[in-house]
Write a structure and sequence with these properties.
By secondary structure, the chain is of the alpha/beta class. Helix content is 44%, strand content 14%.
């Protein structure tokens, strides 16, 4: 079989040399015979196409395997992360005019994992994939948030950062314009329960009703169907996980707590971020005075560590960044 392919390649090369000015013969060669080189060994490929051989060798050291979603003993449900591989033929076409290998012209494609977050049983999510250099800011909004939201939104806009705002259903009903402002500025929206009920004190049916009630308000006011639920006070149980799963949602919490509910000095909140944030961190805070005064410094600290700031949906997606 290999001998037949090589014979065909020799014939095609003669045709190509004879009719090199005719693009149709050149296209025929590329479409019919170049793909077959992938079936040959590196030596045979190198004899006829040293450039293709160089690209294959480069791919061998630059391809990255995908990472499956998994259940972690500490962080529970952790999303997967796409791999990356060199598209050999697309890279070849990028370099064929000069016939010279150029790393800047290498074409990559993402390779999805075999196990996805949706394949895992219902578990809370505390953390993104640690191989993804991204951090998400989670801002909880309920009664008492109005005074500080404008400054928080202004700072996020100044830095060009999108956060994820988890909105209380009762608050949205009472403050539709502020809720719409958050949405219009491009931030992600999540469900923060209705009227701050403690999920642990409710039956599964009542938990489902509370979450759905806020979903209905968010859809009516913002035309949004949230995919993530943040339990008020971080209080949840197995019934909470089952309730959100039944509604096609996931329960998210945090890996870094700014402790702003204790009304700390803004510098103390910044110190927590400085020392605890890592790749994949989910940083929780309220729309509070401390957050309004420190969020700009938090953003600077996170970016100085080399991390991209994204929303919860972006952090938990399998898409690669930073390549």
């Amino acid at each position: 079989m290999k001998r037949m392919i090589l014979s065909g390649l020799v014939f095609a090369c003669l045709v190509w040399m004879t009719f090199g000015s005719i693009s149709s013969y050149r296209g025929l060669f590329l479409s019919q015979f170049i793909p077959q080189l992938n079936a040959l060994d590196q030596t045979a490929a190198g004899v006829y196409h040293p450039l293709l051989n160089k690209i294959k060798t480069y791919a061998g050291t630059h391809n990255v395997k995908p990472i499956d979603a998994k259940l972690d003993p500490v962080w529970k449900a952790v999303p997967g992360y796409n791999g990356r591989e060199v598209n050999i033929m697309a890279s070849y076409h990028n370099m064929e005019d000069t016939k010279t290998f150029d790393p800047s012209k290498v074409v990559y494609q993402e390779v999805p994992p075999k196990v996805h977050l949706k394949d895992l049983a219902p578990h809370p999510i505390y953390h993104g994939n640690p191989n993804k250099p991204m951090v998400a800011l989670l801002i909880n909004v309920s009664t008492g948030s109005n005074e500080y939201l404008p400054q928080i939104l202004k700072t996020l806009d100044q830095f060009g950062v999108s956060a994820t705002f988890f909105l209380d259903g009762q608050w949205v009903k009472d403050n539709p314009r502020l809720a719409m402002l958050i949405c219009e500025e491009g931030h992600a929206i999540g469900n923060f329960g209705y009227n701050q009920e403690n999920m642990k004190t409710l039956s599964k049916a009542k938990q489902t009703a509370q979450i759905k009630k806020t979903n209905d308000v968010l859809e009516a006011v913002l035309d949004i169907k949230p995919h993530y639920f943040f339990p008020p006070q971080g209080s949840f149980n197995e019934q909470t996980l089952e309730a959100t799963n039944k509604l096609g949602m996931r329960t998210v919490l945090w890996s870094v707590d700014t402790l702003d509910w204790k009304n700390p000095d803004p510098n103390d909140m910044l110190e927590i971020v400085n020392t605890e944030v890592e790749s994949g961190s989910m940083v929780v805070m309220r729309a509070s005075k401390g957050t309004a005064e420190s969020i700009g410094s938090m953003i600077e600290s996170i970016e100085q560590k080399g991390y991209t700031l994204g929303t919860v949906p972006e952090l938990l997606s399998e898409e690669r960044i930073g390549d």
